[in-house]
Design brief:
about 30% strand, 9-stranded mixed beta sheet
């Protein structure tokens, strides 16, 4: 049996995205690659899955050490397809990205890229999501590829705890200007949505989502958070736990507990 590591690469920016190509190139240095993505961008899909229409998938290219699939599904759909139908064994590593744009702070909750990584962690697969703070379709991924190689090498040598994945965000800087890597906590911030009312050519009203990010950290930007690291030229790495339980709140809510005596007790 082939002992070469099998690496799943996916994203939420579509099969043609430059960030995915960069990540595939890095992943091939560590093992055989199966890549899957959608024909069109799926940004903001979070952990959505397809349940109301059939899932379609097609093998679009194959060469030694690399298979590429395209699907009409979401990023998480793609991961599930590989786990259950498109590979004769589960991957040894899942890589998502390299995303166009930040997935720091609360953006992790909306990200299709990070949802794919979390789906891997739920299924006991070491998983990493990579994002570059550059929305330009022609963004330069050379510095991101170098960072990705460093982080992948680390995870290959030091397996992540079960149920944990990494959220890696990379500032849009030339490689010599990136100051290093910081292990961070997620900044306390949120997106303040605003909806612009517009009118289409037929006179019908519609709304367009806009808004801005509000950082609730202290004035110094919350040193130690991912937002602080990125603003100061560092790569941020936040370990993400798929267990969302707020354990510190459980004990405080014990007074709400009670048991009822039923007729058979």
């Amino acid at each position: 049996m082939d002992q070469t590591p099998l690496i799943l690469v996916t994203n939420d920016d579509g099969i043609q995205a430059g960030g995915m190509e960069a990540l595939i190139s890095v992943a091939r240095r560590f093992g055989n690659v199966v890549a899957i993505s959608s024909r069109e961008p799926m940004s903001g899909m979070s952990h959505a899955i397809t349940i109301k229409v059939p899932l379609r998938v097609k093998l679009i290219s194959e060469e030694p050490g690399l298979k590429r699939f395209i699907t009409n599904g979401t990023p998480v759909d793609g991961v599930k397809l590989v786990f259950n139908s498109l590979s004769n064994r589960k991957p040894d590593l899942l890589l998502a990205g390299i995303n166009h744009g930040s997935n720091s702070s609360s953006s992790v909750l909306y990200s299709g890229t990070m949802a794919a990584a979390m789906e891997g962690a739920i299924n006991h697969i070491p998983s990493i999501g990579f994002s570059l703070l550059d929305f330009d379709p022609a963004a330069d991924f050379s510095a991101s590829a170098r960072i990705a190689e460093e982080v992948i090498q680390y995870v290959m040598e030091r397996p992540l705890p079960d149920g944990v994945c990494l959220n890696v965000n990379i500032p849009a800087l030339p490689s010599p200007e990136i100051r290093g890597i910081r292990i961070c906590n997620q900044a306390n911030g949120y997106w303040k949505e605003e909806f612009e009312k517009r009118t289409d050519p037929n006179g019908a009203e519609y709304f367009w989502l806009t808004g801005f990010f509000h950082n609730r950290e202290p004035e110094n930007g919350g040193e130690g958070t991912d937002e602080w690291a990125l603003k100061n030229g560092f790569v941020s790495i936040v370990p993400i736990n798929t267990d969302l339980t707020a354990y510190d709140v459980m004990e405080k809510m014990k007074s709400l507990e009670y048991s009822q005596t039923g007729p058979n007790d």
